[in-house]
Design a protein that fits this description.
It is a single chain. With 91 residues, the protein is mainly alpha-helical. Helices cover 49% and strands 0% of the residues. 7% of the residues are buried.
């Protein structure tokens, strides 16, 4: 009885297993690709933070920026109104 059941299902099982295996491979590569894309977007966003090039940036982890200490080195500092480039002269 079991042998007969296996023999009748075999023509269906081979293509089904083939499709499932390739579907699993596609999902793995899709997940890895999505993770890489997300990481690249996040890295690109983090590289827009201008604090390290600002004249007010101290480099001290206790007080990174005396002007805006709460937003220093965070995404909120991307459009910081107090950013001053060290190459510009003010006065």
């Amino acid at each position: 009885m079991l042998y007969f059941l296996i023999k009748t299902m075999q023509p269906v099982l081979v293509p089904l297993c083939f499709v499932c295996a390739w579907g699993l491979i596609f999902m793995i590569f899709s997940s890895v690709g999505g993770s890489v894309a997300t990481s690249l977007r996040r890295a690109r966003r983090m590289h827009q933070i201008p604090c390290a090039n600002c004249v007010f940036f101290t480099g001290d982890y206790h007080l990174k920026c005396p002007v805006n200490p709460k937003i220093a080195l965070s995404e909120e500092a991307i459009d910081c109104p107090d950013y001053r480039s060290p190459s510009k002269t003010y006065g």
